[in-house]
Input
Amino acid sequence: MKTFKNIDWILQLAFMIIPFLLYLINAFVGIGNIIIAREMFSFFYIGVGGWQLISVIIHFFFTSEIKHRLRNVYLVLLGITLFIGLLAGITYEQNLLGYLSIMLWWTPLLAMLYLITCIIETKKIQSNAS
Output
């Protein structure tokens, strides 16, 4: 469990930092093509979301002693986000486009909340082990 928790937050952080660094290198040094940098950003954007989805599912099988209360906050916010998305999708097409544009800014905030939650839980496991 401790190994998974460490891999979990390190992968999440890598998925967040690597595309940002690639974009900065391309912007300031001019190495490569800006289109490639944007594609990498999209790849990692989807990658962090996919990894966090896998992580959330795996964490359902962990004991509640290691879970921090921020995890419940995250799950509630995620549920509300998905519910609003379903409503937007079944009502009117313009609602869905507006929802998706908001998701470009909202989901990174959720990803940061989940990363912080995982780091806190990992530190808690490490302090209990020592």
Observations:
- DSSP finds four helices and no strands in the chain.
- The two ends are 15 Å apart (CA to CA).
- Residues 2-129 form one domain.
- The chain has a mean pLDDT of 85.
